[in-house]
Amino acid sequence: MARIAVIGAGAGAMAAAARLAVAGHRVTVHERTETYGGAVRRFERDGFAFDTGPGLLHLPAVYRDLFVKTGKEPLERCVELTQVDPASRHVFADGTALSLPNASRAGVVRALDEALGAGTGARWSDLLGRARKAWDATRRPLLEEPLRPGAGERRALGRDPYPAAPGRRWPLPRGRRPRTLAELARRELRDPRAAALLESYALGHGFDPRAVPAGAAVLPYLEQTFGSWYVRGGMRALAEALYERCRARGVEFVFGSEVTGVALDGGRAAGLTLAGGGTADADVVLSGIDARRLYGELLPPEHAAALPEHPGHSGHSRFTVLLALRGPRPEGTAHRTVAHAADRAAELAGLDGDTGRRGGAGAVTVTVLRPDDPALRPDDGHETAVLSVTVPAHAPAGVGSPGHASPGHGVDWTAEGRAERFADVVLAAAERAEPGLAERVLWRELRTPADVERETGAPGGCVPGPALAGAGGAFLRADNRAAPAGLYLAGGSAHPGGGLAHAGMSGALAAGLITHGDDWRGSE
Fold first, then answer.
1. Which of 466, 462, 496 is nearest to 479 (CA)?
2. Which single residue of 12, 162, 233, 345 could bond 490 by disulfide (Cβ 3.0 to 4.6 Å)?
3. Mind giving me the DSSP string for 379-405?
């Protein structure tokens, strides 16, 4: 039995902690805040409740596997999972509305043809067919096997798996692959609305479609193949169930325990140093915090070289507006609606600078979540809505935000009046798809990248998306096994990246390495 000290109580760290405790290890989690869940948080006021982090779950099999392997009580006995149908409703700049069914390839093709014109569905289906080949080629190394120090695995995953498509339908020279998702959208989909749909999957994960490789087409493939799910009571209920599972398996949590360093003994992780001068001895250390903080603040400088040159962060975060609404939720309201920007060029330019001053409501794509969940509202005469936009990360006083190659791309989200002005822009943009929202607002609460940074500790409030193959490895995350022996990584900034499902996978990979040894290749 090993003594294992865990830094942070995010979803990835808790997923690892539960597995490690079941394997017989003594696990203690040190969390600097007073609660668990990392970015999976809840805001409550006047009987209203809101998820301030992820609003939907994809690949629920990750947590089904976790709960089965850490106890006899399966996931569905701990939380109520429901499929979201339609999976999403999209409203484009010209007013065209498109509703996509959940996990139905044929249904998506029909919906695209009906909304955007005959042939659109076939082109989308062809694209997702090639995305499936990319998924099949990279699924195991990208999601099911740990990433260790060394260039070999990164080199292999640095090649874009999206296949070239010879033939008359493919408007590129034979064998030439598109370099980015934006190029893929233009070349394969023809209709700018279909292109905007494809790019919105990247934006929804905090990526710039001009930067991510064409292989990012696996993002809509995954969602449309495996479905979108909601947890009754809000996604925070999943974090609560994970926390309770950890406690039931003997994991100890110490809240308000800020870690100031990883103690090394003979080059091996041997525990933690804590704020106030305390220490916590351990045989193994598992970090669930942002890898840049781990290598930049908690380890000696000589270990910083182990952090990838491109740590996989997009340099983007999320701006969220929580709306308490008077009046009941209208019948037929979609759980998730995406209001697409009218000026995509201005929107993408805004990702590199001050979104709060550029382009207005026509230059932002807004995701509107309106769950039909009585647990989130004081009564049936009221409703909640969460509006979210991908924005530049927080950079006080104009300092370049973390994750960008050059300074000047971040935004000081604490500047006077900036958040309120941008919230007005976001609400106006949402009104394009959800008319009447503004007149029903009782009050609103804003969550900026500065708030994300304060709550999660992620520099700039960067929200990590899932790891992507291609682009020379620029969108891979930090290794699950760190350079100092005895130190391992889980969570959104570790392989295989961010999002609830991927964070859960990172916990499984880190726990597997600790339990079975550094040569472990993953579950068969």
1. 496
2. 12
3. STTEEEEEEEEEEEPB-GGGPPPTT-S
Residue 424, token pair as written in the block: 């007005």
CB 17 within 8 A of CB 27: yes
Here the tokens at position 238 are 């999943």
Pick from 295, 203, 241: nearest CA to 489? 295
Nearest partner of 38 among 47, 29, 46, 26, judged by Cα: 29
Q: Burial code of 131-165, b = ≥16 C-beta within 10 A, e = fewer? A: bbbbbebbeebbbbbbbbeeeebbeebbbbbbbeb
* pLDDT tens track for 179-224: 999 999 999 998 999 999 999 999 999 999 999 999 999 999 999 9
Count of C-beta atoms within a 10 Å radius of residue 89: 19
Q: At what angle do helices 120-139 and 218-226 cross, to 10 degrees?
A: 100
Of the candidates 219, 92, 160, 173, which has an alpha carbon nearest to the alpha carbon of residue 499? 219
For 178, which DSSP code? P
Rounded CA-CA distance 146/155 in Å is 15
Distance CA 470, CA 216 (A): 9
Backbone phi, then psi, for 457, in 5-degree steps?
80, 0
pLDDT tens sequence across 346-387: 887 788 765 444 557 788 999 999 999 999 999 999 999 999
Which residues are bridge partners to 261 per DSSP? Answer: 273
Give the separation between CA 160 and CA 483, rounded to whole angstroms.
27
Task: Return the amino acid letter for 435.
Answer: P
Closest CA relative to residue 220, chosen from 43, 87, 405? 87
How do beta strands 441-447 and 316-326 pair? antiparallel
Q: Which residues of 477-510 are buried (b: 16+ CB within 10 A; e: fewer)?
A: bbbbbbbbebbbbbbbbbbbbbbbbbbbbbbbbb
522: alpha, beta or left? (left if phi > 0; alpha if psi -120 to 50): left
CB atoms < 10 A from the CB of 253, how many?
A: 19
- 224 burial level (CB within 10 Å; 0-12, 13-18, 19+): buried
Low-confidence ranges of the chain (pLDDT < 50): 167-174, 355-357, 398, 400-408
- The predicted structure's pLDDT at residue 100: 97
Bridge partners for 284 per DSSP: 4
pTM for this predicted structure: 0.93
* Cβ proximity of 398 and 410 under 8 Å: yes
Contacts of 368 by beta carbon, 8 Å cutoff, 6+ apart: 336, 337, 338, 339, 385, 386, 387, 430, 433, 434, 437
Phi and psi at residue 478, in whole multiples of 5°?
A: -65, 150
